[in-house]
Amino acid sequence: MNGAKDTSPVLEWRVTKSPRWIVLLSLLLIGFTSCQMFRSGRNQGDLEYWEERARRHGGRAVYDLGHSEAELDSVTRYQMDVLFPVLRRHLKGDEKLVLDFGSGTGRFTPALAELIDGRALGVDPIQRFLDLAPRTERVEYRLLENGRIPLPDQSADVVWISLVLTAIPEDSTLRRSVAEIERVLRPGGLLFLVENTHDRPNLPHLAYRPVEFYASLFPSVPLQHEGGYYDRGERISILVGRKRAGATPSAAF
Ligand SMILES: C[S@@+](CC[C@H](N)C(=O)[O-])C[C@H]1O[C@@H](n2cnc3c(N)ncnc32)[C@H](O)[C@@H]1O
Asked: Which atom of ligand 1 sits closest to the CA of residue 54?
C-alpha cells in the first residue's frame, strides 16, 4: 500500500510535468530551427550584405575595401591587363554574346562586348550596382531576381565571372547559380572564372575555396587553372573551360 502511495507522486510528476519539459524542449528546437532557416534565408547569396555594402560604399563596394579610392582605376586596369589576354587566347572569333554574371558596377562589361566584337549582358542582384554601370550600345544590364538569369537556354557564347562565386558562401545558392550558368551557356561555349582562392578562413560573406573546388564545380564544364594574380596579398585564380557538347538533353538530339 505504502509503495503504491509513494510511487503515485512520481507517476503524477511524470504524467503532468513531463509535457512541460516536452513543450519547453520543442520551443527550444523550434527556435533553433527558425534561427537556422532565417540564417540560410539571409545567406541567399548574402544579398542583404551586398545591398548594405553597395549603400555604404557605392562603386567601391565591388573592390577589396582595403584599396584606397585613388587606387581603384589602376586595380581595374591591372586586372584587365592580366585577364583579357588569357580570355582573348581562348576566343574562337565567332562569339556574339558574353554574359557578365554578377557584373556589379559593370567594370568589365563594355570592354567584354568590345573584346568579342559582339554584345554583353551584365546581370547582378543589386540594383544599386547596375545603376552605376556604364551604358554603351553593345551592353545591357538586367537585375538578377531569385537567381534566374534572364536569358534563354544555351544562348551565351561566353560566361565571364569575376569574383562572384566567392561572394556566395551558401552552398545551395552556389549550386543554383552553377545550374543557371550551365543552362544559359551553349554547348562548346566558354566559361571564364576568376575567384579568390587564397588559403584563409571564410568570412560570413566570403568563401575562400581552393582551385580544385572550382575546377570541378561545373558538372558540364571542366575547368583548367590558367594562372592568376595577387590582390592585396590574396591569391586570385583564373580558371577556363568549354562546356561539353551534348552535355544537355536538348543538345543531345
Ligand atoms: C566582389 S563583387 C564583383 C563584381 C564584379 N564582377 C567585378 O569584378 O567588379 C561581387 C558581386 O557579386 C554579386 N553577387 C552577390 N551574390 C550574388 C548571387 N547570388 N548571384 C549573383 N551575383 C551575386 C554582388 O552583387 C557583387 O556585384
From this structure: 25
Q: pLDDT tens digits, residue range 112-150?
A: 999 999 999 999 999 999 999 999 999 999 999 999 999
Residue whose Cα lies nearest atom 17 of ligand 1: it is 45
Can you give the pTM of this predicted structure? 0.83
Judge if the beta carbon of residue 231 lies within 6 A of ligand 1.
Answer: no
Look up residue 163 and give its three cell numbers: 569574383
Residue type, position 121, single letter: L
Q: Is residue 176 part of a domain?
A: yes
Range of the domain at 238: 54-252
Domain count for the chain: 1
Q: Is 14 helix (H, G, I), strand (E, B) or coil?
A: helix
What's the CATH number where 76 sits? 3.40.50.150
Query: What is the tens place of the pLDDT at every residue in 12-67?
Result: 333 344 566 555 655 555 444 443 433 433 444 479 999 999 999 999 999 999 99
- Is the CB of 163 inside a 6 Å radius of any atom of ligand 1? yes
Cell of 7: 510511487
